[in-house]
């Protein structure tokens, strides 16, 4: 397909490539400002306590300390959904909750000052388990959330935002089933997306009510919007986004660290930089929500799902900003994966005394599928149904539909992904490797191999609004104004590509404005997989709009109508007679032409990723080795081949596949402390342990925008975890349903764990 | 005011990317304090922010620089221990006059061997030290040399290709 385009589908160097490989890229912590102060946060050692008294005199007396702020010193700024979580509160709700903020001339002085603040706490009982938190006598985190139940629904999604899946008649559905299976499943290991660059902010307050915040976030325009609400809607906020050293969704929830920097700047009149340490990143910043599900499914012999019923408990930690959104999107996504007429799935979002859950690739759907696919697998086993055939049959097809996050029904109008799935299965060799449920693919002494498959898709590829300007200059160059930061996907370069393709300009003649909210129009940002379709559509429309205005202006000079004109390389010419031409500079050197483009949300398209995995299990040690991954998808049209490959390889990182093998945040459930808040004890995959990855990418044109492309980057992490447990279960011949499949759990499932250790793995 | 700092025996001499620095010991922002790590001195005192700090405890390789031919973790090295040493950072790989990129840097561009790019300077420095010692490594040797470099976007596969391509060129 690529040949019909000049740039689209071709591998071209990233616009920021030279800066990245020379160390010239200016990430947030690389920014220096005159008179800049450094912020640090004093954090609670208790999971739940009232602050009785804070003595900050000694800290203030330390030379170089410019401000010490406690809950008594700051305005009532609040975040979360609903906005109940104060930026500094009299009550602390987890180990690591903010107690005081310090600004000082150096980081070292700020750190020293933290130790000079005396705090007297009244320690309260704490709760670390979501079911314990729901009991009537449980410690209560907020007056506003009786029973620790977070208010359901996401106001941003509209009045009918999806809070559950209720449709059809489940009793009738179970009556039609050949097999009913039920059980409790969890995805509670709290993997952290863990970008290398820690979260942080720089803020400069200007009296009386204006603040500029330098941010590291994939969606920097939204920081302006979020902070505007947090600061009670009377502070004029400007967000300046720059290169983002990884986010995977997480840095969308940076309002707290941004507010701390803003408050310290407000108190000192100086710019304040506040960058979290890696320990803070792991122990107090956001992680995946924990999920636990009790559910029942009915299935017919042919793999038709007749009913799904159950409860989905979601532990959001000490507050929620987006968990309701993750529940809404997860409920939508599960309908894309499983066609079923009868549903009664009831989510409950619960607060507990640990750090907050937030956004991570997979956004609710990964969490839900990591539990539902194992349950469906029990039914498939009873009916001897091949999981690949099951997932292919049940994935949304053109003409099917789903209730999406706003509570409305949408009919899917995209491509049938069965062809991509089959191509993936052939590449993987699924038919040869699949030996039936709980049967290994191969046995070699104490090692056994097994295979598994999973699928995920999201109709967020057209979610939310985007706006862009494209400005044409008389020198034959163009500039795109789209408030997008580069966070690793290469999308800033891709939007340049799209504009260059529309205007037929050399790539080097198109530039992209900085991601500054002051100069750019509204942009929800590259969240989910919306970049290619939603943000791309706005950029394309802005370029088309500008081109149309250029043709209107120049048509009289060429004595023709605008519709007869085309342009390439800064020259406007008459279609069919390219010799009749005029350069862009004929617009006059004292003029620019600005086009505007807007994308309106469209939930009728979904992406899809199927992942096949092969693992080897050492039955003597319990070690699981991931040998191979095949990811299969259809993207309509590849925009940038290496960028796409990078996104799909990302299936391993950011709390994806490895959350089924070794990744977990270990919370001490008696003290509330996180025990592995460093990059040695938090396990991550190293170069020598890389499996073989093959990415199967089809290009069936989508009815999206003029390049017929859809985004897919976000979802690479999501099909893998449940596929891994499936593969391990098949390898060892018995079910293993706990994430991650540590050696201890594998041996427990095999019944060979010695020394009387408690069994945790076997279902 | 800081008169004692100008005494010769109180000076710290570093060569960074071929440029010689004489740094005073002390607590001013242009001086080196005993607790300053090399990463801190490079970034905050000398303004060489290409070296990244991620974990700040020697686990992730983001801060890797080359000192006297060997890779070190600059977040785990105190600057006062580096007196008289020669250090190469990511800023020192391209030709100082022509700005021509090192073949390894060019290979990273050609293979899009990065996503967010935050871990990339550390990756390149680790790979550079490998290629100096072993100009024609196998893929396994490349992976082994980069085992201490954390990347969360999963640029690994493109990085291995880039390093292999650069190694072929350097033969």
Overall structural domain count of chain A: 3
Tell me the greatest interface. Answer: A-B, 58 and 58 residues
Shape of chain B: globular
* CATH-derived topology of the largest domain in chain A: Aldehyde Oxidoreductase, domain 4
In CATH, what is the class of the largest domain in chain B? Answer: Alpha Beta
Poorly predicted residue ranges of chain A: none
CATH-defined fold name of the largest domain in chain B:
Ubiquitin-like (UB roll)
CATH superfamily of the largest domain in chain B: Beta-grasp domain
Our estimate of the beta-strand percent of chain B is: 5-15%
Largest sheet of chain A: 8 strands, mixed
Overall number of strands of chain B: 5
Span between N and C termini of chain B?
A: 55 Å
Write up this protein:
- The complex is a heterodimer of chains A (763) and B (171).
- Chain A contains 18 helices and 32 strands.
- In chain A, the strands form eight sheets. Chain A has an eight-stranded mixed β-sheet, sandwiched between helices. A five-stranded mixed β-sheet of chain A has the order 9-17-16-15-10, sandwiched between helices.
- Chain A starts with 16 loop residues before the first helix and ends in a 13-residue tail after the last helix.
- In chain A, 24% of the residues lie in helices and 25% in strands.
- Chain A folds into three domains: 31-124 and 194-283, Aldehyde Oxidoreductase, domain 3 (Alpha-Beta Complex), CATH 3.90.1170.50; 290-461 and 604-750, Aldehyde oxidase/xanthine dehydrogenase, molybdopterin binding domain (Aldehyde Oxidoreductase, domain 4); 464-599, 2-Layer Sandwich (Aldehyde Oxidoreductase, domain 4).
- In chain A, β22 and β23 form a beta hairpin.
- Chain A is α+β, with helices and mostly antiparallel strands and 763 residues long.
- Chain B is an alpha+beta fold and 171 residues long.
- Chain B folds into two domains: 3-89, Beta-grasp domain (Ubiquitin-like (UB roll)), CATH 3.10.20; 103-170, [2Fe-2S]-binding domain (DNA polymerase, domain 1, Orthogonal Bundle), CATH 1.10.150.120.
- Helix content of chain B is 30%, strand content 13%.
- Chain B has a five-stranded mixed β-sheet, covered by helices on one side.
- In chain B, a hairpin with a 2-residue loop joins β3 (64-67) and β4.
- The radius of gyration of chain B is 17 Å and the shape is globular.
- The interface between A and B is large, with 58 and 58 residues.
